[in-house]
């Protein structure tokens, strides 16, 4: 029987859609009908398990699944014997300490002898220990943000993305203790044939990520400006230059990275580039 790599992803929640999208962008197709627990890819040796995110680290440690996608917060909190293979760039949020907004905050020292409510007792207690703060930690599994209001705690430690939940519960963020995003985790003892499939998958994930951060750029320029324009364009190797039907003009093709994009476009324009077109890249193999 053909070996398959088994991946666990969140069944329904904040990471579900992006996890499915990532697999799809990697060209992996499967039928994920509603309420399915398991799906098999048609065109890649992959089996997909749909689980609660909290259970994924344990399943990966036990080898029920070979790899999984979870928030780094869950990976660190569960503290299982598994490895972090790659950060995936979605599901970004932060784990923060918050207090009632009318309370004054000066430094971490304020929390000495105080009570925290959190769903992340391990990450929080490590953080407090590292900062030599002695506080009491009350673990609760949901609706942490109401704990101060009902007198259960002086402060909370919870996930934040926009901060609007904190705000509506009369809280303010004082300290970020972890910046988190979705990560790919793997079992520590993957067999060789499964590792080979994992590497194929990682190769595709990389190509998708690289493409997302890069744009394809086309422009027209008079030939006497070409040298200057080519020196502005970083490109993968050197840019492609094709003659235009109009005499003494050329079309230049290259790729630019998202983070340098605007700066480069401005320089190109001031150096005589015209008709600049910018296109998304779907996949990029270096
Ligand atoms: P499950 O039913 O699978 O246990 P859940 O309710 O525990 O789901 P979600 O709220 O769907 O989990 O969050 C999953 C992950 O999404 C979090 O662990 C975190 O890594 C990430 N995330 C991104 N933004 C936020 C946010 N604003 N609040 C909470 N989690 C967020
Ligand atoms: Zn969960």
CATH superfamily of the largest domain: Periplasmic binding protein-like II
Instruction: Determine the fraction of residues in helical runs and give it as a percent range.
Output: 25-40%
Query: Largest beta sheet, briefly?
Result: 6 strands, mixed
* Total of domains: 3
Total helical elements: 8
Backbone CA Rg: 25 Å
CATH architecture of the largest domain: 3-Layer(aba) Sandwich
Mean pLDDT, to the nearest integer, reads 94
Quickly describe the structure:
The chain has 286 residues and is α/β, with parallel strands linked by helices.
Explain how this protein is built.
This protein has 286 residues and is an alpha/beta fold. The protein folds into 3 domains: 5-90 and 182-211, D-Maltodextrin-Binding Protein, domain 2 (3-Layer(aba) Sandwich); 93-180, Periplasmic binding protein-like II (D-Maltodextrin-Binding Protein, domain 2, 3-Layer(aba) Sandwich); 214-280, Alpha-Beta Plaits, CATH 3.30.70. 27% of the residues lie in helices and 33% in strands. The chain has helices at 16-25, 56-62, 72-78, 121-130, 164-168, 192-212, 226-232, 261-270, and strands at 5-10, 38-40, 46-51, 67-71, 82-87, 93-100, 115-118, 136-139, 155-160, 171-180, 182-187, 214-222, 240-243, 249-257, 274-280. The strands form 3 sheets. A 6-stranded mixed sheet has the order 2-3-1-4-11-5. A 5-stranded mixed sheet has the order 8-7-9-6-10. Strand 7, helix 4 (121-130) and strand 8 form a beta-alpha-beta unit. The longest helix is centred in the C-terminal third of the chain and has 21 residues, at 192-212. The protein is flat. The two termini are 33 Å apart. 26% of the residues are buried. The mean pLDDT is 94. The structure holds adenosine-5'-triphosphate (ATP) and zinc ion. Zinc ion binds at residues 52-54. Zinc ion (ZN) binds at residues 52-54.
């Amino acid at each position: 029987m053909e070996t398959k790599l088994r991946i666990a992803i969140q069944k329904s929640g904040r990471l579900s859609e992006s996890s499915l999208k990532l697999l799809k962008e990697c060209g992996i197709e499967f039928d994920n009908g509603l309420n399915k627990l398991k799906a098999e890819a048609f065109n890649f040796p992959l089996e997909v398990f749909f689980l609660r995110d909290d259970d994924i680290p344990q399943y990966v440690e036990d080898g029920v699944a070979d790899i999984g996608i979870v928030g780094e917060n869950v990976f660190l909190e569960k503290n299982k014997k598994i490895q972090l293979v790659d950060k995936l760039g979605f599901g970004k949020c932060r784990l923060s300490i918050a207090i009632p907004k009318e309370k004054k905050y000066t430094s971490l020292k304020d929390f000495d002898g105080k009570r925290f409510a959190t769903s992340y007792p391990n990450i929080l207690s490590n953080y407090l220990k590292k900062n030599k703060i002695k506080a009491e930690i009350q673990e609760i599994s949901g609706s942490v943000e109401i704990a101060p209001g009902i007198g259960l705690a002086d402060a909370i430690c919870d996930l934040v993305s926009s901060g609007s939940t904190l705000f509506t519960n009369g809280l303010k963020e004082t300290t970020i203790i972890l910046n988190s995003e979705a990560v790919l985790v793997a079992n520590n003892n993957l067999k060789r044939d499964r590792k080979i499939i994992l590497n194929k998958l990682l190769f595709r994930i990389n190509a998708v990520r690289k493409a997302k951060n890069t744009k394809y750029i086309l422009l027209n320029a008079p030939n006497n400006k070409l040298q200057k324009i080519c020196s502005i364009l970083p490109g993968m190797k050197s840019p492609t230059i094709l003659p235009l039907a109009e005499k003494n003009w050329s079309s230049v093709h290259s790729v630019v990275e998202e983070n340098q994009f605007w700066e480069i476009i401005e320089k190109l324009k001031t150096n005589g580039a015209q008709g600049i077109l910018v296109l998304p890249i779907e996949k990029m193999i270096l």
